From TrEMBL:
Any GO MF annotation of the entry: delta(3,5)-delta(2,4)-dienoyl-CoA isomerase activity
GO CC annotations on file: mitochondrion
Designated name of the protein: Uncharacterized protein
InterPro entries, alphabetized: ClpP/crotonase-like_dom_sf, Ech1-like, Enoyl-CoA_hydra/iso
A Pfam family of this chain: ECH_1
UniProt record similarity statement: Belongs to the enoyl-CoA hydratase/isomerase family.
């Protein structure tokens, strides 16, 4: 995964990791790291085995899509205002 080094990404990276110096190191060096390290840092919510076939994203998306669009949109707006 790559991150574009814009103002929002860099500020958010510090917030996610809770470690300003690590955010600087990652931004300045573009150091590669494993999926396990990404999970430990909070950059991904879950690491699954099996590559693309093991990813639960499609199942999650189907579950969200089955809900009321009004409720999903309202929830996104509320969560966005707190981030």
């Amino acid at each position: 995964m790559g991150l574009a080094a814009d103002d929002g990404t860099l500020a958010y990276l510090q917030k996610i990791t809770g470690n300003r110096s690590l955010a600087h190191i990652l931004a300045y060096t573009a150091r590669a790291f494993s999926s396990d390290e990404a999970e430990k840092l909070g950059l991904v919510s879950k690491v699954v085995q099996g590559g693309k076939d093991g990813v639960v994203t499609v199942q999650l998306a189907k579950g969200i899509a089955s809900k009321s669009p009004v409720v999903v949109t309202g929830t996104k707006r509320l969560q966005g205002s707190q981030v």
